[in-house]
Specification:
heterodimer; A: 133 residues; alpha/beta; 5 strands; globular; B: 557 residues; alpha+beta; 5-stranded mixed β-sheet; 9 strands
Amino acid sequence: MTDAAAPPRIPLLVVEDDEDIRSSLVQVLEEEGFAVSSAPNGRVALDALGAPERGLPRLILLDLMMPVLDGRGFMDEQARLPDLARIPVLILSASGTLESMERPANLTTSVLKKPFTLERLLTTVRTLCGAPG
Amino acid sequence: MSALARTQLGRRAVEMVVLAATYILLARLGLSLATVERSVTLVWPPSGLALAALFLFGLRLWPGVAVGALLVNALTPGVPWPTAVGMALGNTAEAVLGAGLLRWSRFDPGLRRPRDVVKLVILAASISTAASAVIGSLSLQLGGVVANAPGVLGNVMRVWWLGDLMGDLIFAPLLLVWLSRDGRETRLGSWAEGGVLLLLLAFIFAMAAVVFHRPASFVFGAQPYAIFPLLIWAALRFGPRGSVAANFVVSVVSVWATVRALGPFGPPSLGDSLQLLQMFVATVALTSLILGATAAARVDAMRAREDFISVAAHEIRTPLTALQLQVQRLRRAVTRDDRAAGDQPSSRNGETAAMIDLAERQIVKMTNLAEVLLDLARLRTGDLRLSTSPTDLVALLRECAESLEGARRLSAGGAGPAPVFDIRVAGPDDSRSPIIGRWDRTRLQQVLANLLGNAVKYGAGQPVMVTVSTTSDTATVDIQDRGPGIAAQDQERIFRRYERGVVTGGPPGFGLGLHIAREIVSAHGGTISVSSTPGNGATFSVSLPLLPLRKRTRRLI
């Protein structure tokens, strides 16, 4: 699958407080050819989105339970900014009760339950940002 | 003064007026029920109201109590106004002291622990009421309302004290428990449970009426202790909410009847019989409050344990995520290495791949374990929520079967063993036709995967026959293996928690799969059962309603 000529790298943003998970995600997604930036909580992520070096990400991978600004708070603020509200969010959650979770209505959100397989992660990410598999 | 401050002040004024008015209303009720010495009554509900109001809504509402008490006492015939002021002072001091002591002692108004009942009884009902009894009785004597004879003051004080005590014991808990907002209670109410509670209270009312409303001379009627079974039931089934409501019903009926000289405490004089009644109602109240608190404490402890399990399972998922990603990266690296080596993959890489396989299998086991623990915690707390949508049972079965076949192929080293599942849809027409009902897809998948997995695990390598059939309102899946079967005495047991079938040297497990499966199926309004002849395999049958399911009821305690 890596034989094809490299297409322009799709920018992604990973927001996750657990350092091991964050670096694992960055590594596997970079290996798959994405341009991945990361943030340890929602506040840092919003700051980074305010001054994007590589343009806005095509997809945000978002943990829910984080210090400073958690996933829900992040989405609330994201939904208020029209530029950011367009970016789809993939929620990565270890919580069992996601079906009933409230999310801002103007955001596109999907959920990936932790722990997930590499396969699941890549398929979901590719589908959500329309990347070729 | 700012607009906000004005609004707050206005609101507080309204609260005080409402409190004063309610106080007067209850006081008139109390006085009309049992007046001894004109101003002293054996049952004084306003004490309970004042205590609960100041505790729940703040001590700053005390002027409401003072005004209410002053008006009540001043309106009582034969009470001069300085005496009325003195009595109101006593009533107010009692409420402030009681509510203050309860706040100081970190009293929980939900009455969910026996220690809170004890705090209520000692700090409020016994100590704070003494203040009012002393100040009020002295005011009455100084004002010349009661005679200045030996023994009179003490008697008035005692009667006053007991009346207020009863108010704090019966009326305050009713308000404290039902008006306090408690995080633990918010999601527990349901109409069905409320209905059951009302029905039980109606029974208690009827029983109290039978016991207390018979003529006093009719000795062979129902005795007062006949009320206890129902009270105990209310306390154990509904916790503090049930016990305080039941206490209230019993005390209203018994006081109302006894002042009319009816029932076991009716004769001979009203003062004496009301004191007998007081003892009885106080005993009832204490028993039932303690029982209700004990029941609630147990429920809370159980819930705390389930919460812990749920948090623990949740915490396990996070490191598993990082672990799984890294192990899978490792596998990819090895595969890439192999590919680069071309036709001669090194045996070392083969070994590494085997190690990675093992690590991955363990991660999967760990993940499943966390899921099982979470499910168990949800079942115990009644939190198993179904999110139903139109689901095709046949497609779901095929999906589960395929994924299990895939796993088998993988563990057999890629060489495809014969498929083990034979899925058939009973019926004359197209066997591929879908069977659709409103079910929770993920949960149902869990049930089917568990049953199919068991059939493979215990099926001695023989094919497993799966039949799907429908009636007008039910869909049934029969999963028939040809393993050793299950002995009759084990057939019910295997659905319980931590139980497993007796298979010597069988695969290890928690013994929770079938239990969770049964809970999921019954949450759908369906049934799960097994039939088996030992030595001849076992058939597990799952029946699911094709019609929408009823809402499940939750317990109120």
